[in-house]
């Protein structure tokens, strides 16, 4: 109140010096001469419990209030509080390891226990492609309208509403994916989660090193956001997350360690020309990333563990989460 005189309220941010922490909640300061807004919060609102039962109290560093508008009216307000919990203890690095290979339509997971997983991400990729298609249609219509006209303003508002809805759907699927990965690591007692360092991937795709379709998929996936989401969710479960380079992981056979890019066959199938080892190509990359963590090398080093039956995970539209399915349903 008294901050935004506009009809549509937007997010209002209070920095650390703009609010007071009280025993029962927060006091949001306003302009000079006006009383602060008291926000009551339940007990334990600033405490998280780690998997080992230890409780950590955080210090609020930023507060945001976002207005949810429905049909040109403010329906409710959402409070976002950012905490600083300091250094969170994690498990020692000596323990089981899980390695992940991010791909646009498939995410592969390999563990030092020999348990491989494939997460089918075609539903997420389809939502991203649909959002880009809707955006292109809106931009084509806007380009034919006069700047500042009433029809253009209405179309701009409609564009914002539609894209916001699609963005919420995409973010929910990304959070569901990273939560499923973190929960798998917690249940299997993983100590270190290894992610590929994809710095410069989009730059290489833009120089013509990738095909047209592959470049489009690379530019559409939010690899950095997925990595950061998985990192903080692993941290809350006491799991350490590290990033290792993916050099030669996609062009080297996991079983024998021979580097041969031509062994990658149609539709992401890897079959080594030397030893005949056959595996899904993304799982082969995840296995090499695991090998790099355990053996400090990829080329010329045989696979440290043998993989068992592959588990497949797919998006369930009914429950809005990733569920374990049969290999036939995950194909």
What does it look like?
Helices cover 31% and strands 27% of the residues. It is an alpha+beta fold and 331 residues long. It folds into 2 domains: 12-84, no CATH class; 97-118 and 175-325, no CATH class. Strands 13-12-9-10-11-16-17 form a 7-stranded mixed beta sheet, with helices on both faces. A 3-stranded antiparallel beta sheet has the order 1-7-8, with no helix packed on it. Helix 1 runs antiparallel to helix 2 (150-187) and helix 2 (150-187) crosses helix 5. The longest helix is centred in the middle third of the chain and has 38 residues, at 150-187. It is globular and about 80 Å long.
* Secondary structure tally, helices: 6
Q: Structural class of the helices, strands and pairings? A: alpha+beta
**What portion of the residues fall into strands of 2 or more residues?**
25-35%
- Mean pLDDT across residues: 85
Distance between the termini: 53 Å
Please bin the fraction of helical residues: 25-40%
How many individual β-strands? 17
State Rg: 24 Å
Shape descriptor reads globular
Unreliable stretches (pLDDT < 50, length at least 5) are none
Can you tell me the number of structural domains? 2
Keywords:
27% strand, alpha+beta, globular, 7-stranded mixed β-sheet, 17 strands, 331 residues, single chain, 3-stranded antiparallel β-sheet
Break the fold down into its secondary structure elements and pairings.
Elements: E1 12-14, E2 19-22, E3 25-28, E4 37-40, E5 47-49, E6 55-57, E7 59-70, E8 73-84, E9 97-101, E10 106-111, E11 117-120, H1 122-142, H2 150-187, E12 192-197, H3 201-206, H4 212-220, H5 223-236, E13 240-245, E14 269-271, E15 278-280, H6 281-295, E16 311-316, E17 321-325
Parallel strand pairs: 9-12, 11-16, 12-13
Antiparallel strand pairs: 1-7, 2-3, 3-4, 5-6, 7-8, 9-10, 10-11, 14-15, 16-17
């Amino acid at each position: 109140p008294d901050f935004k005189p506009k009809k549509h309220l937007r997010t209002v941010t209070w920095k650390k010096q703009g609010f007071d922490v009280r025993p029962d909640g927060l006091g949001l300061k306003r302009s000079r001469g006006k009383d602060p807004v008291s926000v009551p919060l339940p007990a334990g609102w600033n405490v998280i419990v780690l998997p080992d039962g230890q409780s950590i109290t955080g210090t609020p560093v930023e507060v945001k209030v976002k207005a949810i508008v429905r049909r040109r009216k403010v329906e409710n307000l959402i409070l976002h509080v950012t905490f600083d919990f300091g250094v969170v203890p994690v498990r020692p690095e000596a323990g089981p390891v899980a390695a992940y290979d991010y791909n646009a339509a498939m995410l592969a997971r390999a563990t030092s226990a020999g348990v491989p997983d494939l997460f089918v991400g075609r539903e997420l990729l389809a939502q991203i492609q649909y959002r880009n298609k809707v955006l292109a249609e809106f931009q084509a219509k806007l380009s034919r309208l006069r700047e500042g006209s009433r029809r253009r303003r209405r179309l701009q508002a409609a564009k914002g509403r539609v894209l916001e809805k699609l963005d919420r759907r995409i973010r929910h699927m990304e959070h569901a994916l990273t939560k499923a990965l973190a929960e798998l690591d917690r249940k299997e007692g993983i100590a270190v989660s290894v992610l590929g360092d994809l710095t410069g991937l989009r730059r290489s795709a833009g120089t013509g090193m990738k095909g047209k379709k592959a470049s489009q998929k690379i530019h559409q996936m939010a690899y950095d956001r997925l990595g950061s989401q998985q990192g903080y969710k692993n941290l809350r479960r006491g799991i350490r997350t590290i990033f290792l380079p993916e050099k030669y992981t996609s062009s080297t056979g996991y079983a024998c360690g021979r580097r041969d890019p031509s062994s990658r066959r149609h539709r992401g199938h890897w079959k080594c020309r030397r030893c005949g080892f056959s595996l899904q190509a993304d799982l082969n990359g995840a296995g090499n990333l695991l090998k790099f963590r355990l053996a400090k090398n990829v080329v010329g080093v045989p696979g440290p563990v043998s993989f068992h039956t592959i588990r497949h995970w797919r998006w369930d539209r009914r429950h809005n989460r990733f569920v374990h399915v049969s290999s036939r349903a995950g194909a």
